[in-house]
Design goal:
Largest sheet: 5 strands, mixed
Low-confidence stretches: 7-14, 128-138
Oligomer: single chain
Mean pLDDT: 83
CATH superfamily: STAS domain
CATH architecture: 2-Layer Sandwich
CATH class: Alpha Beta
Number of helices: 4
Number of strands: 5
Length: 138
């Protein structure tokens, strides 16, 4: 057994080590405002957390709110399940007697809307063009 009693090598001088970044624990805050309600999920909006957002919004609609803003500002990650929920809520607003608006998220979240060509389908609070990322080649 060669090297059996040797300790693992130590990092070389100048090597950088970083602590792993853990995602924000999911939460869904609700802010009733004068004539609307703002629902602000935070953390990862994925297959595990999307049902919580869906339930919160459905409960608000059932209790009489008819103007809902989904604030994506603190969403760190959006998967296809979260995208599907937003698109379903938007489709439901067309026939369901409520208004749905989206407050844009960070660039990584907005990129999901760009890649799926759904950015212009949704009612963003700020013009969608301002949330688009401009790509240039060097």
């Amino acid at each position: 057994m060669p090297f059996a009693d040797q300790s693992p090598p130590s990092p070389s001088f100048g090597a950088m080590t970083t602590a792993p970044v853990s995602p924000t624990r999911f939460r869904c805050d609700v802010f009733p405002e004068r004539d609307r309600v703002r629902v602000a999920p935070a953390g990862e909006l994925d297959i595990a957390t999307t049902p919580h957002l869906d339930s919160a919004i459905r409960e608000l609609l059932e209790s009489g709110f008819d103007d809902v803003v989904v604030d994506l500002a603190e969403v760190e990650f959006l998967d296809s399940t979260g995208l599907h929920l937003i698109l379903s809520l938007d489709a439901g607003s067309a026939s369901g007697g409520y208004r749905l608006r989206i407050r844009p998220g960070p660039p990584a979240v907005q990129r999901v809307f760009e890649l799926t060509d759904t950015l212009d389908l949704l009612d963003f609070e700020t013009p969608a063009r301002l949330t688009r990322r401009i790509w240039t080649r060097s």
